[in-house]
Amino acid sequence: MTLAVFFGCTFIAFGPALGLFLFTVLRDPLRIIILIAGAFFWLVSLLLSSLVWFIAVKASDPGDEPLQKGLLIFGVLFSVLLQEAFRFLYYKLLRKAIEGLVALSEDGCSPISIQQMAYVAGLGFGLMSGAFSMINLLVDALGPGTVGIHGDSQLYFLTSAFMTMVMIFLHTFWGILFFHGCETQRWWEMAAVILTHLIVSGSTFWNPLYVGSLVPSYLLMFATAAWAYVLSGGCTQNLLQSLRGQQSETSPQPGS
Amino acid sequence: MLMEMGLFILQNDSERRRHDNSERRRNDNPESETNGQPQNRTQQVVEQDEEDEELTLKYGAKHVIMLFAPVTLCMVVVVATIKSVSFYTRKDGQLIYTPFTEDTDTVGQRALNSILNAAIMISVIIVMTILLVVLYKYRCYKVIHGWLIISSLLLLFFFSFIYLGEVFKTYNVAMDYITLALMIWNFGVVGMICIHWKGPLRLQQAYLIMISALMALVFIKYLPEWTAWLILAVISVYDLVAVLCPKGPLRMLVETAQERNETLFPALIYSSTMIWLVNMAEEDPEAQRKASKSSTYDKQANQIQNEDADMDDGGFNPEWEQQRDSRIGPLESTPESRAAVQALPSNSQASEDPEERGVKLGLGDFIFYSVLVGKASATASGDWNTTLACFVAILIGLCLTLLLLAIFKKALPALPISITFGLVFYFATDNLVQPFMDQLAFHQFYI
C-alpha cells in the first residue's frame, strides 16, 4: 500500500471533521475542553463495553466460531447502548456546567449555549470513535502489503474511511438531536438517536457487502443532518441564502 | 548521571487575589466601622469575591488551553521520536538507580526486581528533595545554582548531541563533526541563555519543551517496563504526599519561599506569560502583577498590601527539579528589583493584567506525562489506540487538576490525577479494548 492510500484515506475519514474542528472549535478554549471531555466520555463507555465483552469471551469457548461472532455482535449492540448512556451522562454534566457559567458571568448568560455544547460534544464523540476505528488501519496502510490478497474485499481501506467519515458526522448530529431531546423533554428524539445508532451499527454486520452498510448509513446521515439543521433553527431559506453567499436577514440561532 | 525528577505544584493567581481581598477587607474595615455602615463592607467584599471568582473561571478555560498546547507538543515530540528512532526503544542497559534486571526466569522474580528498582529510585528522589530543601533552608544558593547549571548543560549539549546523532543514523544523513559541533554549540548556548537568563518567550517555551522531551526519552530508554510503571505510580503518590502533607518537603519548600518572598527554581518552570525584567525571568510576571495589582485594585500604594502580594507570589508554581535553581542568588536583590518594577510604567500592564496572568507548570510534569505516553506508544500491543487513550486521559486529568485548583485555591500536585487516569487507561485499553477493536476491525463492524 502506498502513501497515496494513506493520505487519501486519512483525508476521507478525517477531512470534514478536521475542517469542523479548525473552523468552529479551535478558536474557543471552552469548546476545546468540551471536545476533549466528550472524547473522554466516549472512551470510558468503550472501556466498559470492552470489559463486558472480554468477560463474556473469557467465559466462553474460544474455538466456537459462531458463538464468538454472536458475542461480538452482542458486544457491538451493548457498546452502542452504553455510548448513548454516556452521552446522556455528559449532557447532565454539561447542564451543571452551564448553570455554573451562568451564575458566574457578568450579564447572566453563559458564554456558550447548550446547542453549541451539543454540537461540540457530538463532534468529540465522533472524533474519538473515528480515531479508534481508523488510526491503526491508517498506520497499517503505510506499511507493505496487498489488500485482499486472501480473497477479502480489496476496498477495505476505502470503505473503512468512508464508514469512519459517516460515523463522525452521525455522532455530531446525534449529539445535537440527543441534547435537544433532553432539553425539551422529547423522549422520542432520544429514542430515535438510539434507534438510528443501532441501525447504523447493525448495518455494518453486512460488511463486506458494502452496499448494505454504506448506503443506509449515508441515507440516515443525510436524514439526521436535515433534522439537526431544522432543530438548530435553520430553514431552507437560510440554506439557499448561505449557498448563494448572501447574508441572511434573520439572525441565526445560537446553535449554528 | 544527574537526574531531573520534576515534582509539580500548581498554584494560580486566585490565591494571590484571595490574599489581596483579605487585605482589602482589613483595610476597608476601619473605614466602614467609622462610617457605621457594615453592610457596605460586606457587599464590597462579596462583590470583589464574585468578581475575582468570575475572572478566575473566565480565564480558566484559557489557562487550561495554555497548558494543553505545550503538554500536547511535548508528547507529540516524544511519540514521534519513539516511533521513528529505534535507539530509544532498544535495550542498552539500565541506569545505576535501577540496578536489578527484569530479564528474569520467573514472573515473581521480575516483580520483585521491579519493586526494588522503584524503591531505590524513589528513595533517591526523596533524598535529593530533602537535600534541596536543606540547601534552600540554609541559603546555600550557590550550590543549588551550580547544580542546576550543570544539569541544564548536560541536557542541552550532551543529550541533544546523542539525540541528533540517532536521528541522523535513522534517516541515514551524512554529517561532519564541524557542522555538528556548530549546531550543537548554537543550540546549547542559546538554550542556556533563554532558560537561565532572558529570551523571547516562545523560544524559552520551546527550549523547555525540548529538554523535557529529551529527559523523558532518556527515562523511556533506560527504565525497564514494569519498573517504569511502578515508578510512575509511586511518584504520583509521593507528589501527593509531599505537596499536601504539612511536613512534606515540597510544602516546606513552598512555605520557606513564601516567608522569604522569593520565587523558587524559575529556570525549570514553563511559563506562559511575558517576561521582561532585568535579572530574572520568572520574577517579572509576579512583579508586574504586583505593580499592576497595586494600581488596579488598591489605590493607596499600601506597603503591607504589596508585601502580602509578594508572599503569595513567592510560592508561585515552583517546579521541584531538585538539581536546579538559578535564581536564588540574584533574588537577594528583590527589594531593588521590585522598586525598579514599580518605577516602570505599569499602565499598559494594568489594562492587560487579566490577559497577562498566565499559568505555570513544572517541567517534571511534562517529563512524566511524556514518559507515560511514550512508554504506551513503545510497548503497547494496542499501539496507537493505547497512545491516544493515554493522551486523552492525561489531558482530562490536567483539566480536572486545574479545576480543583480553581476551587481550592491552594498549591496542588499535578501528577496524581493525570498519572492515575493515564495508567488506568493504558492497562485497560491495552488488555480490554484492544482485543475488542481488533475483532471489530477484522469483521469491519462499527460501534
From TrEMBL, chain A:
Entry annotated with the keyword Hydrolase: no
Top-level lineage group: Eukaryota
Subcellular location: Membrane
A GO CC term attached to the entry: gamma-secretase complex
Statement: the UniProt record of this protein carries the keyword Transmembrane helix: yes
Gene Ontology biological-process annotations: Notch signaling pathway; protein processing
Pfam families with a match to the protein in the record: Aph-1 (PF06105)
Keyword list, A-Z: Membrane, Notch signaling pathway, Transmembrane, Transmembrane helix
Topological relation to the membrane, as annotated: Multi-pass membrane protein
Membrane-spanning segments: 6-26, 33-56, 71-90, 117-135, 155-180, 187-206, 218-240
Assembly notes: Component of the gamma-secretase complex.
Family: Belongs to the APH-1 family.
Function recorded in the entry: Potential subunit of the gamma-secretase complex, an endoprotease complex that catalyzes the intramembrane cleavage of integral proteins such as Notch receptors.
Protein name: Gamma-secretase subunit APH-1
UniProtKB/TrEMBL annotation, chain B:
Subcellular location(s) of the protein: Cell membrane; Cell projection, Axon; Cytoplasmic granule; Endoplasmic reticulum membrane
Gene Ontology biological process terms, A to Z: amyloid-beta formation; apoptotic signaling pathway; astrocyte activation involved in immune response; autophagosome assembly; blood vessel development; brain morphogenesis; Cajal-Retzius cell differentiation; cell fate specification
TM helices/strands, residue ranges: 64-82, 115-136, 143-165, 177-195, 207-223, 229-245, 388-408, 414-433
GO cellular component assignments: aggresome; cell cortex; centrosome; ciliary rootlet; cytoplasmic vesicle; dendritic shaft; endoplasmic reticulum membrane; gamma-secretase complex
Enzyme class, UniProt record, top EC level: hydrolase
Major localisation: membrane
UniProt EC number: 3.4.23.-
Biased composition (Basic and acidic residues): 13-29
Key words of the record: Apoptosis, Cell adhesion, Cell membrane, Cell projection, Endoplasmic reticulum, Golgi apparatus, Hydrolase, Membrane, Notch signaling pathway, Phosphoprotein, Protease, Synapse, Transmembrane, Transmembrane helix
Pfam families for this protein: Presenilin
Membrane topology annotation: Multi-pass membrane protein
Region: Disordered, residue numbers: 12-48, 305-324
Coiled coil: none
GO molecular function: aspartic endopeptidase activity, intramembrane cleaving; ATPase binding; beta-catenin binding; cadherin binding; calcium channel activity; growth factor receptor binding; PDZ domain binding
Composition bias, Polar residues: 32-42
Subunit architecture: Homodimer.
Notes on the domains: The PAL motif is required for normal active site conformation.
Its biological purpose: Probable subunit of the gamma-secretase complex, an endoprotease complex that catalyzes the intramembrane cleavage of integral membrane proteins such as Notch receptors.
Family: Belongs to the peptidase A22A family.
Protein name: Presenilin
The organism of origin for this protein: Terrapene triunguis
Classification of source organism: Eukaryota, Metazoa, Chordata, Craniata, Vertebrata
